[in-house]
Amino acid sequence: MVKSLAVERAGSSAIRDLLEITEQPEIVSLAGGLPNPATLPTDAIARAAAAALEDDPLGALQYGPTEGYRPLRRWVAGRHGLAADPHGEEHVLVTSGSQQALELLTRALVDPGGLVALADPAYVGALQALRAAGVDLAAIPADGDGLCVDALADRLATGERPALVYVVANFDNPSGSTLSAERRVALAALADRYGFWIVDDDPYGDLRWHGEAPVPLRELTDRTITLGSASKVLAPGLRVGWAVAPVEVRRAMTTLKQSADLHTSALTQQIVHRTLAEPGFLEGHLVTLRTTYQAQAEHLVGALRTKLGDRMTVPEPDGGMFVWAELLDTTADSAQLLDPAVAAGVAFVPGAAFGVERLHPTRMRLSYATADAASLDLAVDRLAGVIPAP
């Protein structure tokens, strides 16, 4: 049996394991944060692929620079407020999905045994990457306004010194919360005072349909590193993500990426750039995504409140892809409900999958992004047959 220390530390992702189960056609999955298939812009991607192979076949099919395709890096820099900087792309590293960006960043800035602070509950992929790197985790409470920055401040005051503070500031995964404007200012001030890096993982920021987005953390302190991805706004199968960071951090990550995979696929980078940079495409596509996900979110929340309102509380999302539902029975354990739910033909992610120190037994993450209205209704009917009535 082959099992290194890194494998043991990382563990298996509950969500990735569930995806294999939910590929079965009889199961309605509320588990993975997969884009709705109807929203995937296949025609635009096909045009971009054909253009890349016709206009620049060598650039699309040959080895490329580790930093990434320069036109894509310039586009990302512009989206992150660096359009006026003639060397803005020097802050951008293109990665094989934002998951690789987090893994490289952790290796670049935190030695094994170093400390990383993050909300509890936390994104499963982040937990895997951080644990595989052998860092220690400081679990910080979170609520409807995101990471409790005052609790972090208390930990800092006692002498704890995280190298990184990881947040999903816009529509946190799994909780769906957005870090409030006041807490962003406070977190930025703490970073400047204590010298840690803020890692703002932002795959969902463009998927907002209610309210105004708070000021990005990167505009509040230069100790912010922003991670982004084409997965949620274009297509996850292209596996293109990025990090926007101070140049010295980007260079350190580039060195590590050279030893990992040399560079992200040149062809998919060109496809992503040509698609996203096509005049008028992104604005129209984001309208489609927001309209679709808002309708699906409202449909799922309405169905859950109608059929399971006596058994769970369900918040109303303002964006993103998830509902962080809570069972009203304080003795319940959502992990114990998963096998019966799958047997009944519906899947979700138990709260325990997101736990840093706590298990969140009464919580479950439900994604409304993938399924259509009829499938969401069916999923709720099946859940109603599994979750005990009061």
Short description:
With 390 residues, the protein is α/β, with parallel strands linked by helices. The protein has 14 helices and 14 strands.
Overview of the structural elements:
This protein has 390 residues and is an alpha/beta fold. The protein has 2 domains: 139 residues, Alpha-Beta Complex (Aspartate Aminotransferase, domain 1), CATH 3.90.1150.10; 234 residues, Aspartate Aminotransferase, domain 2 (3-Layer(aba) Sandwich), CATH 3.40.640. The chain is globular, with a radius of gyration of 21 Å. It starts with a helix and ends in a 6-residue tail after the last helix. The model has no long low-confidence stretch (mean pLDDT 95).
Key phrases:
Aspartate Aminotransferase, domain 1, 42% helix, four-stranded antiparallel beta sheet, 2 domains, eight-stranded mixed beta sheet, Aspartate Aminotransferase, domain 2, 390 residues, alpha/beta
Map the helices and strands.
Layout: H1 5-10, H2 14-22, E1 28-29, H3 42-55, H4 57-61, H5 70-79, E2 92-95, H6 97-109, E3 115-120, H7 124-132, E4 136-143, E5 146-147, H8 149-157, E6 164-167, H9 181-194, E7 197-201, E8 224-229, E9 241-244, H10 247-260, H11 266-276, H12 281-308, E10 312-313, E11 322-327, H13 334-344, E12 346-347, E13 349-350, E14 363-367, H14 373-384
Parallel strand pairs: 1-12, 3-4, 3-6, 6-7, 7-8
Antiparallel strand pairs: 2-9, 4-5, 8-9, 10-11, 11-14, 13-14
